[in-house]
Amino acid sequence: MLIDLSTDAILFRAHRSWLVACRDIAGFAGQDLKRALGLRGNPPYVVFELSRTSLTAAGVTVRPARSVDAVPQWFTEWDPAGLPTGLPEMVDGDVPRAALSRIRLVD
After folding, report:
1. Stated pTM of the model
2. How many other C-beta atoms lie within 10 A of the C-beta of residue 77?
3. Residue 20 contacts by C-beta under 8 Å, 6 or more apart in sequence?
């Protein structure tokens, strides 16, 4: 799957850098992931795993999401309580490709 990615140094631009902790979705099948993250599309999904070590090494500082993070893309579904299942969302600026630890398919 890595060969299918753009070679751009930025993996996710800031307006698409919404994250959840891996431990909160570990072992979820596709439909569980859809519910947990409030996704509109159906599985299969591609999950990008970014370790804290790789994020820190790439200069990324992850923080809790705020309403102003939703403004640039008019992300009207944002909720200060987190995702529909209560999972907290985190966000930062651009996430560089160097922060990617693993990609996996969830169906």
Report:
1. 0.78
2. 9
3. 36, 37, 83, 87, 88, 89, 90
Q: Which two tokens stand for residue 48?
A: 């990008």
Instruction: State CA 11 to chain mean position distance.
Output: 11
Closest CA to 22 of 107, 80, 104: 104
CA dihedral 84, 85, 90, 96 (to 10 degrees): -90
Structural domain range at position 94: 2-106
pLDDT digits (tens, 9 = 90+) for 19-30: 899 999 999 999
What mean pLDDT is reported for the chain? Answer: 84
Q: What is the largest CA-CA distance in the chain?
A: 37
| 33 contacts 25 by C-beta, under 8 angstroms | yes
Bridge partners of 94, per DSSP, are: none
